[in-house]
Amino acid sequence: MARVVVDVMLKPEILDPQGQAVQRALPRLGFGGIADVRQGKRFELELEGPVDDAALAGVRELAETFLANTVIENFTVRVEESEGASA
Amino acid sequence: MARVVVDVMLKPEILDPQGQAVQRALPRLGFGGIADVRQGKRFELELEGPVDDAALAGVRELAETFLANTVIENFTVRVEESEGASA
Amino acid sequence: MSGENGKNGKNGRNLDTVEHAARTPDTEQPWAELGLKRDEYDRVREILGRRPTGAELAMYSVMWSEHCSYKSSKVHLKQFGDKAPHSDALLVGIGEQAGVVDVGQGYAVTFKVESHNHPSYVEPYQGAATGIGGIVRDIIAMGARPVAVMDPLRFGAADHPDTKRVLPGVVAGIGGYGNCLGLPNIGGEVVFDSCYQGNPLVNALCVGVMKHEDIHLAKAAGTGNKVILYGARTGGDGIGGASILASETFDSEKPSKRPAVQVGDPFQEKLLIECTLEAFHAGLVTGIQDLGAAGLSCATSELASNGSGGMRVELDDVPLRDSSLSPEEILMSESQERMCAVVEPGKVADFLAICEKWEVTATVIGEVTDGERLEIYWHGERVVDVDPRTVAHEGPVYERPYARPGWQDALQADDPARLPRPADGKELRAAVLALLSSPNQAAKSWITDQYDRYVLGDTVLAPPEDGGMIRIDAETGLGVALATDGNGRYAKLDPYEGARLALAEAYRNVAATGARPLAVTDCLNFGSPEDPAAMWQFAEACRGLADACHQLGTPVTGGNVSLYNQTGEAAVHPTPVVGVLGVIDDVARRTPMAFRDEGQLIYLLGDTAEEFGGSAWSQVAHGHLGGTPPRVDLERERLLGEILIAASRDGMADAAHDISDGGLVQALAESCLRGGKGARIVVPDGADPFVFLFSESQGRALVAIPRSEEVRFTDMCAARGMPAARIGVVDGGSLDVQGQFALPLSELRAAHESTIPELFG
Amino acid sequence: MTTRIGVVTFPGSLDDRDARRAVALAGGEPVALWHRDRDLHQVDAVVLPGGFSYGDYLRCGAIARFSPVMESVIGQARAGMPVLGICNGFQVLCESHLLPGALTRNDHLHFVCRDQRLRVENAATPWTRDYAAGEEITVPLKNGEGGYIADERTLDELESEGRVVFRYLGVNPNGSHRDIAGITNEAGNVVGLMPHPEHAVEPLTGPTTDGLGFFTSVLENYLVSNA
Ligand SMILES: Nc1ncnc2c1ncn2[C@@H]1O[C@H](COP(=O)(O)OP(=O)(O)O)[C@@H](O)[C@H]1O
Ligand SMILES: [Mg+2]
What we know:
The complex is a heterotetramer, with 2 copies of chain A (87 residues), 1 copy of chain C (761 residues) and 1 copy of chain D (227 residues).
Chain A: E1 2-10, H1 17-29, E2 34-47, H2 53-67, E3 73-80, H3 82-86
Antiparallel strand pairs in A: 1-2, 1-3
Chain C: H1 3-6, H2 18-23, H3 38-48, H4 54-63, H5 66-69, H6 74-82, E1 90-92, E2 99-104, E3 107-115, H7 117-122, H8 124-141, E4 145-155, H9 161-181, E5 185-192, E6 201-211, E7 226-231, H10 241-245, H11 266-281, E8 287-290, H12 295-306, E9 310-314, H13 327-332, E10 338-343, H14 348-357, E11 362-369, E12 374-378, E13 381-386, H15 388-392, H16 408-413, H17 425-437, H18 445-448, E14 459-461, E15 468-471, E16 479-485, H19 488-493, H20 495-512, E17 516-525, H21 532-552, E18 556-562, E19 566-567, E20 570-571, E21 575-584, E22 601-605, H22 616-622, H23 634-649, E23 655-658, H24 663-675, E24 679-681, H25 689-694, E25 701-705, H26 710-720, E26 724-730, E27 734-737, E28 741-744, H27 745-760
Parallel strand pairs in C: 4-5, 9-12, 17-18, 24-27
Antiparallel strand pairs in C: 1-2, 2-3, 3-6, 4-6, 7-10, 7-11, 8-10, 9-11, 12-13, 14-15, 15-16, 16-21, 17-21, 19-20, 22-25, 22-26, 23-25, 24-26, 27-28
Helix pairs in contact in C: 6-21, 8-9, 8-11, 9-11, 11-14, 17-27, 20-21, 20-23
Chain D: E1 4-9, H1 16-26, E2 29-34, E3 45-48, H2 68-78, E4 83-86, H3 88-95, E5 102-104, E6 112-120, E7 136-143, E8 147-149, H4 152-160, E9 164-169, E10 180-184, E11 190-193, H5 212-226
Parallel strand pairs in D: 1-2, 1-3, 3-4, 4-11
Antiparallel strand pairs in D: 5-8, 6-7, 6-9, 9-10, 10-11
The structure holds adenosine-5'-diphosphate (ADP) and magnesium ion.
Adenosine-5'-diphosphate binds next to β4, β5 and α18 of chain C.
Active site (chain D): 87 (nucleophile), 196, 198
Keywords (chain D): ATP-binding, Cytoplasm, Glutamine amidotransferase, Hydrolase, Ligase, Nucleotide-binding, Purine biosynthesis
Main location (chain D): cytoplasm
């Protein structure tokens, strides 16, 4: 089985309260040197068949219509090589 | 500035109700061929300095103590090349 | 925005300053894209004596939008003030951010309902969440501590696929924001009708409490006082969002009319509440204003025009999330969780210290000047120089043409009397189950269980009770009750009567809890004002509500208008949502709705006539909407209210439940299920069982009276001329209508409670 | 002398006022503690209340755990001071590793607010002495991330050592393993639970007054241990 990963992040112009909360906490935890934090979602999809163009197009459509809300979020779709193999 | 990505996923043995909910919705949406869905978090950290070993060690510690709850979650840390470069 | 007006180079070279605007009168400006009409743009030029700068154009266009200026509705809303009944309870009337009502013992209450309809269709979770956020800031800005929220909702058909997208998102958003803010949700409505398919109505109400001396109004008095912006940083999200979204109809050909909605941060808002109230109590605030639709444009122009002087603002000092924003964008941004305060110079340090304590970003962005102008600077250059009144208060006012639609007569002539009715006990039984399991009449607990009703520890009544009730003083037991109601089906049949019916129902719900109704807020959800039929509906509803408020002695203290709830030609049902606030001297006296003790006597108060126009039965059984809505007699409503309040005060009633959509049988079933006790009901002699059970005649309620109180209660009703019929007794484990049918509570419960989870769970 | 019970306010705490009221109704002296203040002001016990500390954006309780006040609370808890974590407070205790396991998203993915029946399994902690083992109580429950999970070994250990303090009855509202609603640490002084006893202390505003026992128990505890 092959793994496809969909990363969904808020668009850059959209407020990210989650990322902000993490960032505000960093100094208190003693972590410096981090200019910005953004938090999003990661979906790992295990496909039954081969990861061909048709399958990827399907995942892309799924991401566009369901996994991401494109009014406020961007997404990327990619095939995960290494980990898929090791799993 | 360089971007480091921390992916946090529930451990495989832990039930993932969010991933399951996505999976259950797939047939209704007309998407077949997906055997499993898991949902986790993706953190994008913009580092102020260079992404050297020390910086990565710092991020790893941050992930271990803060971004992930290692009782239930695994994490991976990686440097994002392409997008970091294009940004 | 593009070209010379919109963009400023990094060094400000292309900045459209006031001087530049004066020198370049012929520059093309994007007034149409920003929603202004030609004559409105001309008026701006006339007011300024030159063309507006890009920043000025941004301000006028958002502030003169329908959403912010009420340009189509103003002439009709005037009646709420003109016809307002005299009320000693009204401390702050219509016109402020929210009205303020005296509830005694030195306490004042402020409450208001607002719409967030369009954003909630585009992005249900965030749209609804920021709807709660916005109305809560209105309440904080009055100096009150928010104590509860409510959410009247309307969706498309329950089984439509898009409703499965919209409803769960809206509910999660309202819960996500309200729960995180720590405000109990004490009521609302959920109505399904295909007329709301592309235009769900998401209204949100907040109620807050303060001491009389803490009332604060939004104004910027006192030359030299500082203007402090505090809360979230300003970003590029939702620029012109609410105002433009709420001022246009959706048109799938113009996706550009769907700007990004804003993302809410309830945690930031919680800090804003604490920080603002602490600053109020420390006496540090001269004036305050929340930032909602039209953001800084609104806050600065309203603060300045409500004060005596002018104002000077340095836009460079606005903390930004995105450093590339232009001055126009900063002025129009609708980033959430921001407030603006006017503070005397000597108190600024203390104010900032409180903000620091709560980790709220706060910055002095300007000061009150002794002039009359609102001047805004960017990189040291003047980009706005206006009379703030012309922005905030002297927008266009339209007398839109309106006309009773041609189809209204035919609709009213389509009398439900022709519809086939259940003929015997068996058919009645089936009709009851069909009614109670229909999406509109089914239990809403799947929704309301997603809302925290316990937080703050003062919730005395919460869903599914007739009204929500909050204790405001633990020593004396002083409390307030609220209910919201509106029936778009009734209003479609007759918008004037529909508005009166909405008030009557909310009033009745509040009185049923034992609280005395005091004041009204309303959210008027209608179609396009440019359509004479929709405008007629709006005008009629305003007239009806103003008349009814006058008659019941409950002034409108504030509210909201949402127009353009329309997809193409199809408008939503005219939907006036009315919120009524009541006061109760001791919450221990409240009357709940549940039948709890066997042997309690069940009385029906009021008269039942054959009234099925717009009824739930006609919808469920026949998908029918026609005829005229039930008659409403407001004197009778007032009398019913007095009886219910007296019964509560004197401990005569164990339970009370208003009768509205679904009729008597709906109310009986709800009271039985709430208490887990059955009822034996006798149809009065000569009454038609179907009419008795299903009619929606107004001015009625159900009460459960302990035997020991029966004589006292019936004597009171007789003395006051209130028809009271003993129709049964609390008993057993079924709803048993003698001679007709018996429904075990388990069967009734399954029918009533499974519908919504099956649709959305 | 009355027992001084500290109630911590984090930014985003919501039920701190209710917890203080419950302490007062029980006859204790509520002491407000501030997240930035390490000083515990000589309290005899601490309540970590419900809410959404710091917005709960990362994970519930994850940021609160690192606040200055928690340094002191963690120290005192290890030294035996009674500490009660309610809902978000329970999450903070797990994130602080004062209690084992974790609280995850409800299995049905919705926030749920309901009157919840519980069985008191352990009536020996300083917070449950006024109950009887096996007693059934009803208190409000309200959370979005209340599913208690831990690995099998930890669960077995909790069971065998009698450290499951409360169990859900009737409905398991969030998918918690073994219907666990609340647990205690090895020493028995730190208790965390998802339901809200502080919302069940007055007949007018709560479904019952079953929650009052938490706040009276700890008073007795103080008297007993100082006798
Ligand atoms: N969206 C909602 N949010 C909160 N409470 C709601 C909501 N919808 C319905 N309720 C509550 O459910 C109960 C029943 O609603 P409804 O049948 O509309 O009452 P009524 O007909 O008496 O006005 C009421 O307590 C009402 O406040
Ligand atoms: Mg009612």
